[in-house]
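Dear Dr. V.,

Thank you for agreeing to look over these. As mentioned in my earlier message, I'm a first-year student in the group and I'm still getting used to reading structure tokens, so any feedback on how I've presented them would be very welcome. I ran two proteins. I've put each sequence directly above its structure. The first is here:
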Amino acid sequence: MLHKLDIAELGERGGAMGQAIGTCVHCGFCLPACPTYQVLESEMDSPRGRILLMKSVLEGHLPVTEAQPHVDRCLGCLACVSHCPSGVEYGDLISSYRDHVRSRGERPPSLKRWLAAMTLPYKERFRWAIRLAFWTRPLHRFAPRALRPMLDLVPEELPKRQDLPAISPAQGPRLGRVALLAGCAQQVLAPDINASAVRVLNRNGIEVVLPAGQGCCGALSWHTGDGSAAARFAKKLMSTIPADVDCVLTTAAGCGSAIHEYPLLLKGTEAEQRAGEMAAKTTDISVYLSQLKLVAIPNLQRPMRVVYQDACHLSHAQRVRAAPRQLLSAIPGLDVAELADRDTCCGSAGTYNIEQPDIAKKLGELKVKNVLDTGASAVVSGNIGCLVQIEKHMQSRSDRVAVLHTVQVLDRAYRGILS
């Protein structure tokens, strides 16, 4: 545990940080599971090494500036948590530590981080930022080096808006009523995910409410260490959720993970109890659908093979692994393959592929290679960040495959257009 620095000085989340640090026995089981350790082979770029660095900073033995490059290189994928025999809650430590350093003014400013924070959580700003990037595409090669990774992620075109009604009624007898989180960047980059979710839920007797004014969940802010911004987003989102829904569904793993961290994020505030209620009421759409007796899915016109890619904030943070595979396996004629590196991050990790493009590129290229090795005609995942990252690194391949969300596959199977 911490000695020189009193836990009370670390604020409301000090106990969580101290508990995580004190639980680590430095056994090293996390090393082979950590993507940055795999790429860099540096002890300080492993969970065990970062815990020692953060502990030294908090105790006053090490300047923030010496630890920060290694802490910044952490994806926050939490693969270490899945492989830790001691139960270290590394997620509680890394986000809280980043926020602690930022709140003390000790984290160096970042133009990329600032631009991401000013655009990604706000769908209309983000849409206009992409349009601006379209207009200036011929000048991208002259852009400052720091901005090129962000410009490289700009898609070739934006899909059409898909405005969904505030309430979508169930088909047949109503078996449930849920609130669906629309997300922020996802509404701009892949609006068909929400449309597919609504169609699949309605087909299975579920009424869907899209809460008005919901906005960002705060995941992007919290996972990059801006706790104050994340708390504002969280409180606003919670205020929009109607009381008369059975649960709140997410289609983005990062959003679901962040909402389950609301009790830590809002600890000691007037919203702490509400945060716990929100976390308890929120579940990934794959989990919810797997618990329903689904309407029969038609046979595919011809057999098809897909490979499922585990989103880190679904498999490691939320422990959701079986439900998506169960749903895909329920589609007659669909063969579901497994990846060789199923536990390894694709390199997206929120804004990581913007802030740490070199490491993200290596992880993205490795993920695409392993996808192609399966011979699948589509790769399926449950997080918009993963889909964007894989699509980016698939673009240069002549043998590229389709990149789809789990619920899009179900929707297309129901509609007889999956191919």
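The second protein is here, in the same arrangement:
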Amino acid sequence: MKFLTKTILAVFLAGSASVASHAADATASNTTQVTDAAKSATPMSEGEVRRINKEGGKVTIKHGPLDNLDMPGMTMIFRVQDPVMLDQLREGDKIKFVADKVDGVFVVKELQIAD
């Protein structure tokens, strides 16, 4: 009888772990979908790279209106979310980008060189 009880308990626990694992995977998948949806919800703005400061992790961009920040076109300095972004840029490049205000600082979160 003890063997049967232990076997049933082991099967139950294994099944519970599997369900928990699937639930965690579903949650992670939903988080990714929400993040991707949030990215696409903010339209990319157009700009031109004026100066690159790799040491400071900053880029100066002459840009058009930034609707998500309610900002008119101007030239300004942005931090970049990932300094690797700066490796692909050259002064004068036409770009598309998404900027946001993070902890009071304007940050480029997405960036691509325009065609």
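From my reading of the second output: Confidence is low (pLDDT under 50) at residues 16-24, 26-38. The beta strands are 45-53, 58-63, 74-80, 94-102, 105-113. Does that match how you would interpret it?

Kind regards,
E.
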